[in-house]
Amino acid sequence: MSILTMITKMGEGLGRTCAIFFLTLLFALPLGLIVSLLRMSKNKVISAIMKVYISILRGTPLMLQLLAVTYGPYYLFGMNVSREKLIPVVIAFSLNYAAYFAEIYRGGIESMSQGQYEAAEVLGYTKFQCFMRIILPQVIKRILPSVTNEIVTLVKDTSMAFTVAYQEMFTIGKQIANSQTSFMPFVIAGVFYFLFNAIVGWVMGRFEKKLSYYR
Amino acid sequence: MTMSKLLEINHCRKQFGSTEVLTDLSISVEEGQVLSIIGPSGSGKSTLLRCATLLETMDGGDLIYLGNYAARDVNGKAVYATQPELQKIRGMFGLVFQNFNLFPHYSVLKNVMEAPMLVQKRQEKEVREEALALLEQMGLSDKADAYPYQLSGGQQQRVSIARALAMNPKILFFDEPTSALDPELTGEILKVIRKLAEKKMTMVIVTHEMSFARDVSDWVVFMNGGVIVEQGDPREVIDNPTQERTIQFLRRLQEK
Fold first, then answer.
1. Which residues in chain B have Cβ-Cβ distances shorter than 8 Å to A123?
2. How many domains, in total, are found in chain B?
3. CATH code of the domain made up of A3-213
4. Among A209, B2, B93, B241, which residue's beta carbon has the most beta carbons within 10 A?
5. What are the CA-CA distances from residue B17 to residues B20, B21, B59, B79 (Å)?
């Protein structure tokens, strides 16, 4: 098999790789914010539940979580494993990344000075208005470098989907590598991820620059 | 009746853990009056201001703005009004912080304009005109589009005064407004406050600037250990204090 054929075949899986990537961000970023707010809740029960959630999702391998979400329903409830694996894959990725994002948000929110809340409160902002207009925009600026870190990791982590045979780029590459006894697909995959992350780095750099209008 | 009084605090009590910070403390402020609160750090003056501006809750006592009870003493316990009522009362006062607490991601103009539009639901055009007039009054006309980090401390504090005034408060509180400033920038803030006093703005000022307090205020309260040790006409209290603790405090300040 020529290198070009390999690239073409693996390229066909790129759409799925992107699907995992974008859908995970779409769900995990807001979910992480909700988890972090609940984690900081004054209600000790809610806060404790979120701590457990975070510690489990950060403390066990993503690979295991992928298997659990994909095949768990079959073993637990005898449900058929759906042929379309995108749904369980995105669920597992979102739950996992939300746990990491939650702690990043928490770090950002807790770094805000009490004075910002007090100034808004005295001016009559509701708690929600204060959070959305005063706190969150500043938090986003502060956590952007850490978020970029996570997003870069996510690009590479999409390859984990091979554990449930979801036909994304790396899974296809691995299959070709096995059938052709060639290392080439891995090299191609490496280049793909590197280029993908170069784009991510550029986009996030633009974001940071856009938010650099204040200190 | 109490209606002539703009602010009234009766028998305020506040504890942090087992430490009593304010003990049965009462003050009242009439319209157009400037009240200065002086005293050593830890005397409870900032806590008093924070109780008055609803940033802290009192354990006991009344807090009344223009006859509206924000908190009412019931058997020694302060019972606070409902959130909507407190929100209405918040509209009556403004607070200028020691370290400004401007919103760094907003331009100067937006810092001043957002609350009147968002909280008071006023028209943007009208608010903008008023905000620009306030900035001019503060000598900041050319800084409307600047961001807080681009301003000196004195300029930032003037923006925060404009931000508070944009809400048209009936009473303005200052929590050591010059303590975070270089000595040479202190003057510009004091000048602004003096001008407000000339316009009969009702103000309560926690300050360490004794000569300023003497000049600008109608009434001075000296606090120590959570109680009012001495109060009265500023010239009396500052120039001829009668209480030993006041004499000692003022002498130490002079030695600096």
1. 90, 115, 119, 163-164, 167
2. 1
3. 1.10.3720.10
4. B93
5. 8, 10, 11, 19
